[in-house]
Write a structure and sequence with these properties.
The chain is an alpha/beta fold. Helices cover about 40% and strands about 15% of the residues. Helix 7 packs across helix 11. The structure holds pyridoxal-5'-phosphate. Pyridoxal-5'-phosphate binds next to helix 3.
Length: about 400
């Protein structure tokens, strides 16, 4: 089992490719290189058959039919297609400007920036706040829905603090009000149960590389009927994916996504028990050794993979420099090009210094007990040295036996 350094604890940014996923992809990178749209020969048929199987596997993970899955290059593209596609589709239908889109303050940049882009086309964007745990209230959404609301977009689970939104309630509310509902389920799909036979979501974005699949492949779920979604393609061309997303299909990626989805469906329950125990050990260990730490996110409605921890009096950047043998992140990796404090942490009420003293630790399928023990020690040493204090119950800080020689 894993004794590799640096310890990888950044599973909200991306996950390791499961070796079983790589195995099923290999033939499609070697001898089965056909184009799934080639209708005239064996190579094409083989590729198409593999895509059909994967489409069903990906659909099954979220309780959708294969025909409701549109393959894209990842969640960012799926989100752009969902939001811009419905905006354009509605406009084409009615030729009426002045639509409104509703989203929340803690959304991923892919959602927030896409909504902002719509403002250039005369849309109004309403950003609802969240509570101190990062939860958006269905009542707050209900209050801002108007006759002009085109779309509500609320993430299923947050990529920084792990908070899980009351998606069933929000979806039901949108359905009653006759408003389309999109959810960014990139952190939820494959990690917690997502069943669209029970939750009336219209559009759902997700990505393979957050569930131990390959990078560069994602999907948009588009509900097949009631209502019919007015989705305008954002990439035109050969009419692939029923005209919703042209371009030659990434067959190896799709096959890998299918396998990753199948494994997630089979192993999620067991994985989550183990991962949750490790996360709780991590937090208990850090709390035992350090005074004055706070855990962000919802105490219960939260991904078991997530530990988002504020260490007042430190800076996450300095902490990460001090423990380069542990791969974690500060705030969201996706916005790390700009050194601004995380908009998610600010939205839940953290001050700027608190936000900057916060680490995001993301556990995953391959995280081991040894890695967690090692991380607890490294965090407590680094925080204590930055604060210029001693840790509680501190004894010898030698390398743990289990990691020696790693
Ligand atoms: C990673 C992530 C994305 C972006 O997904 P890509 O597949 O990398 O484009 C969007 N939303 C959330 C919540 C994410 O965690």
């Amino acid at each position: 089992m894993g004794r590799q350094l640096p310890v990888y604890l950044d599973n909200h940014a991306t996950t390791r490719l499961d070796p079983r996923v790589l195995d099923v992809m290999m033939p499609f990178l070697r001898e089965q290189y056909g184009n799934a749209a080639s209708r005239a020969h064996e190579y094409g048929w083989m590729a198409e058959a593999a895509v059909d199987i994967a489409r069903a596997q990906v659909g099954r993970l979220i309780g959708a039919d294969a025909e409701e899955i549109v393959f894209t290059s990842g969640a960012t593209e799926s989100i752009n297609l969902a939001i811009k596609g419905t905006a354009e589709g509605l406009f084409q239908r009615s030729r009426r400007p002045g639509y409104q889109v509703i989203t929340a303050a803690t959304e991923h940049r892919a959602v927030l920036d896409t909504c902002r882009r719509l403002e250039d086309f005369g849309f109004r964007v309403v950003v609802v706040p969240v509570d101190g745990f990062g939860r958006v209230s269905p009542d707050d959404i209900a209050r801002v829905i108007t006759d002009d609301t085109a779309l509500v977009s609320i993430m299923w689970a947050n990529n920084e603090i792990g908070t899980i939104a009351p998606i069933a309630d929000i979806a039901a509310l949108c359905k009653v009000r006759g408003v389309l509902f999109h959810t960014d389920a990139t952190q939820a799909a494959g990690r917690i149960p997502v069943d669209l036979r029970r939750v009336p979501v219209d559009l759902l974005s997700f990505s393979a590389h957050k569930m131990y699949g390959p990078k560069g492949i994602g999907a948009l779920y588009v509900r097949k009927h009631s209502p019919r979604i007015p989705l305008a393609a954002q990439i035109d061309g050969g009419g692939h994916e029923r005209g919703m997303r042209s371009g030659t299909l990434n067959v190896p990626g799709i096959v890998g996504f299918g396998k990753a989805a199948e494994l997630a469906a089979e192993e999620m329950t067991e994985d989550n028990v183990r991962i949750g125990e490790l996360r709780d050990l991590l937090i208990a260990g850090i709390r035992h050794h350090l005074e004055d730490v706070s855990i962000n996110g919802h105490p219960r409605e939260k991904l078991v993979h997530n530990a988002n921890i504020t260490f007042p009096g430190t800076s996450a950047d300095a902490l990460m420099m001090a423990m380069k043998d542990v791969a974690v992140s500060s705030g969201s990796a996706c916005s790390s090009a700009q050194p601004e404090p995380s908009h998610v942490l600010r939205a839940i009420g953290l001050s700027e210094p608190e936000s900057k003293g916060t680490l995001r630790i993301g556990l995953g399928r391959f995280t081991t007990r040894e890695e967690i023990d090692y991380t607890v020690r490294r965090v407590m040493e680094s925080v204590a040295s930055l604060r210029g204090t001693k840790t509680r119950g501190q004894e010898s800080l030698g390398e743990p036996a289990s990691l020696r020689g790693a």
